[in-house]
Amino acid sequence: MKVAVGCDHAGFPLKATVIEAVRAAGHEALDLGTDSTAAVDYPDFAEKVGRAVLDGAAQRGIMLCGSAVGANIAANKLRGIYAGICHDTYSAHQGVEHDAMNVLCLGARIIGPEPAKEIVAAFLGARFLGNDPGQERHARRVEKVRQIEREE
Q1: Contact by Cβ (8 Å): 63, 45
Q2: Are 49 and 75 in contact (CB under 8 A)?
Q3: How far is it, in rounded angstroms, from Cα 86 to Cα 90?
Q4: Domains of the chain: total
Q5: CATH number, domain containing residue 115
Q6: Mean pLDDT of the residues in the chain
Q7: Which residues are CB-neighbours of 106 under 8 A, at least 6 positions away?
């Protein structure tokens, strides 16, 4: 799978580790910047990651900023993007399995390289369960979220 990876200046120090983790999990990383610690605006990169997922250039995205909060807010403004802040492996896989999360947001000032690798692996190793027998409740709930999007 192709995974769009983007960050602002605060997320940049963790970006190489995340790209390495994507590749270690057997996937292709699409690096959407930024490329230094020079100050930039996180919404620009969250939009790049989200649009790559929506346009089909990537199947999932990972966005890094200092806390993950700004990246998460910005990414979720795109209709069809389901971004979540995950600083643990359970949330990273459960967000995909139950909530159809397609963009993982990480706070580079919150977690270090080793947790980031594990979280990325959990996110990329998960699949949405809503179409499995006995798991239809997840599809029903995600459809309710999509209905809210359509009404806005």
Answers
A1: yes
A2: yes
A3: 8
A4: 1
A5: 3.40.1400.10
A6: 97
A7: 11, 14, 18, 62, 63, 64, 68, 85, 86, 87, 116, 119, 120
pLDDT above 90 covers what percent of the chain? 99
Q: Is 138 a catalytic residue?
A: no
Distances (CA, A) of 4 to 118, 134, 136: 18, 32, 28
Which sign, positive or negative, has the C-alpha torsion 144, 50, 28, 15? negative
Domain interval for residue 106: 2-151
Q: Please identify which of the residues 9, 86, 87, 98 carries the catalytic annotation.
A: 98
Instruction: From the candidates 65, 86, 93, 105, give the one annotated as an active-site residue.
Output: 65
7 has catalytic annotation: no
Task: Provide the whole-model pTM.
Answer: 0.97
